[in-house]
From TrEMBL:
It comes from Alaudala cheleensis (Asian short-toed lark). It comes from the Eukaryota. Belongs to the isochorismatase family. This is Isochorismatase domain-containing protein 1. Residues 99-247 form the Isochorismatase-like domain.
Length: 282
């Protein structure tokens, strides 16, 4: 079994995945020091967005057990870091104070090419009106506007925090990151525009990689091809991104019939776009 160690440090075998590396920690080290040692040994292989559990090899059971509460290293032992396989459910609660709207590339030159473009313009307008009513910051990008034109005239960008040209497909530009850093407590991004499988997908993946929660508005995003759109939404939903609708978003942000802006938001929803078949292709 485990032999008591002399001196100021204790030998520990650190196991992760298929690896096992002998090292040592100070006598009396606890959970935090073990985690630091795992990171120093395996940091380039550990995905910090995963949840982990540290386990200790227990001689009496001849197997690993979850690290006992208050555990301190007093003798030679073997520990391992185990990534949890379970998906941590994203609840997707929205509040105006922690939400930013991203409007992606709703430009004139896309009008003839994008399926149901008229409908997503109509829903995009409604979302931006809702953002103005609720005081939610809006960030807008335009893909290569010199060649593809600016945002369509029907969409009113009054009060937008940023309107930026870009050549990168993702909206996560240095100026966008700087703007997000200036808004205290941002947790959720509501994302819509075109194209679902290119700029929307790449933006969403970059945002969740930065620890933000992403809501994609299915009735306000489209592509030239419905197949591209469908598979992008499926892929994004599997990564924990929330695929939802404009009505669900607006009513979640208001949350209560007694909200002072409820009537105005309700009027926006009543003036909704006609059924286009867009949602049947999710």
């Amino acid at each position: 079994g485990c032999a008591p160690a002399g001196g100021g440090s204790v030998p520990v075998l650190f196991c992760y995945s298929v690896f096992a590396r002998p090292s040592s920690v100070p006598h009396g080290a606890g959970y935090e020091l073990l985690i630091q040692k795992f990171l120093s040994l395996y940091g380039d292989q550990i995905d910090m967005h995963r949840k982990f559990v540290v386990q200790l090899f227990a001689e009496e059971w001849s197997q690993y057990i979850d690290l006992p509460k208050g555990f301190l290293v007093n003798e030679r032992c073997k520990v391992r870091l185990v990534p949890l396989q379970i998906q941590i459910t994203t609840l997707g609660n929205l509040t105006p104070s922690s939400t930013v709207f991203f409007c992606c590339d709703m430009q004139e030159r896309f009008r003839p090419a994008i399926k149901y473009f008229g409908d997503i313009i109509s829903v995009g307008q409604r979302l931006l009106q809702g953002a103005r009513l609720l005081g939610i910051p809006v960030i807008v990008t335009e893909q290569y506007p010199k060649g593809l034109g600016s945002t369509v005239q029907e969409i009113d960008l009054t009060g937008a925090k940023l309107v930026l040209p870009k050549t990168k497909f993702s909206m996560v530009l240095p100026e966008v990151e700087a703007a997000l850093a200036e808004i205290p407590g941002v947790r959720s991004i509501v994302l819509f525009g075109v194209e679902t499988h290119v700029c929307i997908q790449q933006t969403a993946l970059e945002l969740i990689g930065r620890g933000l929660e992403v809501h994609i508005v299915a009735d306000a995003t489209s592509s030239r091809s419905m197949m591209d759109r469908m598979f992008a939404l499926e892929r994004l939903a599997r990564t924990g991104i929330i695929v939802t609708t404009s009505e669900a978003i607006l009513l979640q942000l208001v949350a209560d019939k007694e909200h002072p802006k409820f009537k105005e938001i309700q009027n926006l929803i009543k003036a909704s776009a006609p059924e286009s078949g867009l949602l049947s292709k999710v």
